[in-house]
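Postdoc handover notes: sequence design on the structure in folder B. Input tokens:
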């Protein structure tokens, strides 16, 4: 299965599928360029995530760091970390993606595995993500095990759950060795900026249908408008207004794919003041009109496989004015 969209729940967490009840592990191909707009938006999830680049490459952004993952390399994304993915120039990026609940490895509560190896990694907020390079022996072994675990999960033969868990246990042991210094010296709690940005993202999720002013977004995190702008720039490398527009467009994409509602109804439902402004914004972000997007999704069976670029994405997003006036019309 190729993953071409993610479902984000009301807490802005990705809803991770569980193909097998009682086995908290999910493996899939992910072509980042097939997601709406050609990128994976800012989100987080409780599961840890490991990726291995089968083709192409991506830029992986976290709140405080930016990483490049190219073909043959891999990466770890820690639990509950804000992150964003965008394709690099070149072939469409195909990632072998595995997400799992750490209880798959830790076993029962307060086990030696949980206390000595799992929680120190999970609680180290400096360890937002890590890239694995095949030129490093330990990291090359991690990549080999990730590929083997993925292939084993895909075949799903009798007893494959044991093999996958064994592979991932060894991966985790090697990860602990690679990050030992960071874990010993790193912070063990989420930073103030991370908490603030999540509260403001949650406010936008709850009120995106309404007219939103910059001061209201800032108030959600009990900070000034200026600090709100700084927080968005530092953590997401964008502005609150741009994030709000992109969130509205992504919600519009869902309705265009999954319903027959009119474009006018969708535009107002998603917080736009009119169809003209909605269509202009949609085309700027998606490189096509809402009608064209809906038609392409129908032709592709619900997957927007023709959308390989976006005018304002990730660290290449266009910036809006900082005085907050543009929020008054939204």
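Designed sequence:
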């Amino acid at each position: 299965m190729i993953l071409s969209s993610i479902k984000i729940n009301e807490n802005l967490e990705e809803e991770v599928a569980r193909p097998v009840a009682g086995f908290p592990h999910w493996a899939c191909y992910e072509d980042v360029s097939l997601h709406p707009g050609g990128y994976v938006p800012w989100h987080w999830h409780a599961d840890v995530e490991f990726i291995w680049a089968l083709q192409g490459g991506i830029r992986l952004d976290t709140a405080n760091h930016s990483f490049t993952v190219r073909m043959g390399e891999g990466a770890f994304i820690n639990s509950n970390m804000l992150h964003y993915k965008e394709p690099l120039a070149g072939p469409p990026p195909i990632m072998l993606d595995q997400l799992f609940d750490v209880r798959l490895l830790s076993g029962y509560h307060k086990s030696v595995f949980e206390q000595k190896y799992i929680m120190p990694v999970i609680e180290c907020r400096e360890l937002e993500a890590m890239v694995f390079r095949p030129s490093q022996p330990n990291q090359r072994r991690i990549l080999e095990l990730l590929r083997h675990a993925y292939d084993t999960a895909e075949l799903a033969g009798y007893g494959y759950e044991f093999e996958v868990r064994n592979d991932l246990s060894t991966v985790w042991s090697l990860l602990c060795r690679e990050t030992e210094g960071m874990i010993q010296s790193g912070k063990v709690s989420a930073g103030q900026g991370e908490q603030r940005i999540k509260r403001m993202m949650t406010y936008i999720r709850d009120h995106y249908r309404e007219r939103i002013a910059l001061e209201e977004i800032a108030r959600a995190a009990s900070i000034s408008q200026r600090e709100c702008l700084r927080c968005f720039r530092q953590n997401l490398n964008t502005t609150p207004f741009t994030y709000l527009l992109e969130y509205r467009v992504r919600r519009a994409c869902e309705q265009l794919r999954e319903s027959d509602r009119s474009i006018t109804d969708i535009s107002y439902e998603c917080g736009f003041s009119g169809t003209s402004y909605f269509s202009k914004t949609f085309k700027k972000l998606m490189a096509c009109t809402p009608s064209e997007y809906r038609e392409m999704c129908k032709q592709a069976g619900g997957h927007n496989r023709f959308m390989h670029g976006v005018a304002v994405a990730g660290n290449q997003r266009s910036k809006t004015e900082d005085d907050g006036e543009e929020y008054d019309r939204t």
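Context for whoever picks this up: The chain is about 45% helix and 15% strand. Don't rerun without checking with the PI first.
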